[in-house]
Write a structure and sequence with these properties.
502 residues
Length: 502
């Protein structure tokens, strides 16, 4: 009993970087009552993120509690979780640069607190080894997200976008919670290991399948998978562009990783439905394949019709959700690359090319205003050739063309689906479907590039004065190109982490 208690109370060591971020977030809210300086809070928050990365890299792997009981643990510190949490903290640094000058001075410390809180929530969700801990982590992401959206834009369109996201976030949380309650009903525990053992000893496969469908449905709202995507275009247009960048990245990261971990940690057993010789996991993977196909088709077809810049990027985000769900449907087995490995690799490249695109657009202004329509980018390459080049590279990566990391990301997803051992014929159709949709999606990305390079300017472009967003764009663009020539920089940590996990 003492060892169980000790394991329970020593869990805080594992999430020390995230606790640091939450502490600094609280400091920002309270300290902001007296100090409103943009530079002060940026330095404090940036330091917290960098220190969190250093703690994660140097301390966490060696700080296992002396008497560790997985069946009593709220969090785990496997190598794969450490890699993903490191990716999250790095993303937090880039987003902090992107949003540095976007929040108004009156709400600056509060917005930075929201950004740190959401980043901490992602890390805790990745480390979670208990359904209660996972749910609390997901809410730690959601609550700061819709508060941050409102702080960035407080007019009527911004308020409408925030309320839409707020209501649907609550709805998705309720569905997710109902699904996890069914798991608790069958297993009598919320700990992942205890649930695995309980399901292995015998459980109602129909109830477990229903729980999996509800859990995936709840998380699908967060990643904007079709048919749970309907809020995304309106919210992307209604909120501030920095808020749209936040939405394109943060909920998607936590949603994709949570689905993957629940599939591997809980639903990966051989529990079969009584009515057919098919396992619960196979049905869930089939459902993910259907969501993938629907998301790719709607995202890309609707993207072809868009004239509004951020509505186009919303449908682009939906399409990329579909691409990642292809890897999820391929599962954790397969050579030369497994579906889960391909998803994590693509997630890293998606973060770079998406943040790079939004950061570049935040640097483009006319008469002091951010752009709203695609045609307003006309002639950007003639006036701001460097900025146009940075945007073009990020858009090429979204297409999946060399020399960008997006090329290897889509190749890995295609190979994972093509060579997946289970349900091979269906997954090969899905792989072909991915390639066709990537070709369809290329049109609206290349159309934007063509507008920048082949048209004459409609209005004069302002000088670039948002250097933090420009720095964020440069970093993301350079890494996108570097990862094309040296993909092992990101692939090797993923491969080693999966090898150690197994």
């Amino acid at each position: 009993m003492q060892s169980v208690y000790q394991t329970f109370t020593e869990n805080w060591i594992i999430i020390l970087p995230e606790l640091l971020l939450l502490g600094v977030a609280a400091l920002s809210v309270l300290g902001g009552l007296w100090v409103r300086s943009r530079g002060v809070w940026l330095i404090i928050c940036l330091t917290a993120l960098i220190v969190g990365i250093l703690i994660l890299v140097t301390k966490i792997p060696s700080q296992w509690p002396s008497q560790w009981i997985p069946s009593a643990s709220l969090f785990m510190t496997e190598e794969l979780r450490v890699v993903l949490r490191g990716l999250t903290l790095f993303t937090g640094v880039i987003l902090l640069l992107l949003c540095w000058t976007q929040a108004k001075q009156d709400y600056l410390p509060e917005f930075y607190a929201c950004l740190l809180g959401a980043t901490a929530g992602i890390g805790m969700a990745i480390a979670a080894y208990d359904l209660v801990a996972l749910f609390l982590a997901l809410e730690t992401v959601s609550i700061p997200t819709y508060i941050g959206l409102y702080l960035l834009r407080r007019d009527n369109p911004g308020l409408e976008a925030t309320v839409k996201y707020f209501l649907l976030s609550i709805f998705s949380s309720a569905i997710f919670l109902f699904g996890t309650s069914l798991l608790y009903f069958e297993a009598g525990s919320t700990n992942y290991l205890r649930i695995q053992l309980a399901l292995a000893q015998g459980a109602d496969a129909s109830t477990v399948l229903l729980s999996g469908i509800l859990v995936i449905t709840g998380l699908s709202f967060r990643i904007a998978a079709v048919p749970f995507h309907f809020y995304a275009p309106d919210v992307f247009v209604g909120t501030h562009p920095a808020g749209a960048a936040f939405l394109a990245v943060v909920p998607k990261v936590v949603g994709i990783i949570s689905i993957m971990q629940l599939l591997t940690e809980i639903y990966s057993g051989a529990l079969k439905l009584s009515s057919a010789e098919i396992s619960v996991l196979q049905v869930l993977l089939l459902a993910l394949g259907i969501l993938a196909a629907a998301s790719m088709v709607l995202g890309n077809i609707a993207g072809l019709l868009q004239a509004e810049l951020y509505r186009l990027l919303a449908y682009s985000s939906i399409a990329h959700t579909g691409y990642m769900l292809v890897g999820m449907a391929a599962g954790g087995d397969g050579t030369p690359v497994s579906g889960y490995q391909a998803v994590i690799f693509y997630l890293g490249t998606y973060l770079l090319m998406t943040i790079g695109t939004f950061a570049g657009l935040l640097c483009v202004r006319q008469d002091g205003k951010l752009l709203a329509h695609v045609d307003e980018l006309s002639g950007l390459a003639q006036v701001r050739p460097g900025l146009a080049l940075l945007l073009a590279v990020s858009l090429f990566s979204l297409v999946g063309l060399p020399p960008t990391a997006g090329f290897w990301g889509k190749v890995n997803l295609f190979l994972a689906a093509w060579y997946a051992p289970a349900g091979q014929s269906l997954l090969r159709f899905l792989a072909i479907f991915l390639a066709l949709n990537a070709a369809i999606g290329a049109w609206y990305y290349l159309r934007v590039i063509g507008i920048m390079y082949l048209r004459q300017p409609i209005k004069t472009f302002d000088n670039v004065n948002d250097w933090p967003a420009l720095l964020s764009c440069v970093v993301c663009t350079l890494l996108t190109v570097v990862l094309f020539f040296m993909p092992s920089l990101w692939w090797r940590p993923i491969e080693n982490a999966f090898a150690m996990t197994r």
